[in-house]
Amino acid sequence: MLNLKEAIKKSLRFLLFDNSCTSCHNTLDREGFICSKCLENLKRKAYLKNKENFFYVFIYEKAVRQIIADYKLRNRKDLAKDLAYLIQKPFFQLLEREKIDVIIPVPISDERMLERGFNQIEYLLDLLSVNYKKIQRIKDTKHMYSLKDVKKRAKNVKNVFKNKLNLTDKNVLIVDDVVTSGATIRSISEELEKTNENINIKVFSIAMARHFINN
């Protein structure tokens, strides 16, 4: 039997969102926003892939694209639990394989924090009980999805980040939800390399755009 807190939470959820799976839109058969069938289908595809130093779990399309959008743009914060379940094994495989010393989540702007109420990557890492270090995002920027041109994306995040960490001789992992053009990652990498010698940078994302993989 549901206690009062759980009952209120469930009622509010049905008021704010429909009772359908984020992926297939069929009626949910479990707590959360992804049905059992879709979750297990995604789990079968959830293994570590890479393009050079960029590691990822899924291709950024169809169901995965919708899940990530709902998670960070539609305030479906509980999707983090399912995302953590999906990426946990490949993520920890990467940490061990590459002997990662420091994990850095991509910071979001103050404006995005006000919009969402949380940093979607930090929250996910917290669920995975992973320690991480922060760098600063010193400027607000336009939403990257509103910029289709690669040069405009690069300009949008140029000189946006500030690092005060000593990362010399460290294996560093930058973590983001999606890599599309790689502009954000390149901007962070440039900032980290300015003041740190012999830094080895790898990247992990939940998903990666197919055009980035193929280029």
UniProtKB/TrEMBL annotation:
<dbReference type="InterPro" id="IPR051910">
    <property type="entry name" value="ComF/GntX_DNA_util-trans"/>
</dbReference>
<dbReference type="InterPro" id="IPR029057">
    <property type="entry name" value="PRTase-like"/>
</dbReference>
<protein>
    <submittedName>
        <fullName>Competence protein ComFC</fullName>
    </submittedName>
</protein>
<dbReference type="Pfam" id="PF00156">
    <property type="entry name" value="Pribosyltran"/>
</dbReference>
<feature type="domain" description="Phosphoribosyltransferase">
    <location>
        <begin position="153"/>
        <end position="196"/>
    </location>
</feature>
<comment type="similarity">
    <text>Belongs to the ComF/GntX family.</text>
</comment>
<dbReference type="InterPro" id="IPR000836">
    <property type="entry name" value="PRTase_dom"/>
</dbReference>
